[in-house]
Amino acid sequence: MAAPTQAPVLPAWSALPPADEDPGLEVLRAVASVDADIASAFDRNPAVQDLLSDLSDEESQALAETLRARVGRGGEL
C-alpha cells in the first residue's frame, strides 16, 4: 500500500507585489468603482433601502450581479 501524500505547506503570509507589477490591481479597482457607482445610485433614493430590506439573500445576490453587469457595460442606474 502506498503512503499517503501530503499537501505542500503554504506560507502563512506572503507579500503583495508592487502596485506597478500587480495585474490583479486593475480588476480590484474596477470592481470597487462599480460598487461605488451602485451605492451612489441608492444613496440618491433612500426609499430604495426599504424595498431592498425585504429581499432574500438569493434575490439580493441576483440584484447585485445584475447591477454590476449593467454598470460594467456603461449603463445608467
Topology:
Blueprint: H1 24-43, H2 47-52, H3 57-72
Describe what this molecule looks like in 3D.
With 77 residues, this protein is mainly alpha-helical. 55% of the residues lie in helices and 0% in strands. The chain has three helices and no strands.
The rounded distance between the terminal residues' Cα atoms is: 62 Å
Radius of gyration (Å) = 20 Å
Helix content: 40-55%
The helix-strand sequence is HHH
Category from helices, strands and their pairing: mainly alpha
What are the low-pLDDT stretches, counting only 5+ consecutive residues below 50?
Answer: none
Q: Biggest β-sheet, characterized? A: none
What is the 3D form? extended
Helical stretch tally? 3
Strand content: under 5%
Q: What's the rounded overall pLDDT mean? A: 75
**Number of E-type strands:** 0
Features:
single chain; 77 residues; mainly alpha; 3 helices; 55% helix
Summarize the structure.
The chain has 77 residues and is an all-alpha fold. The protein contains three helices and no strands.
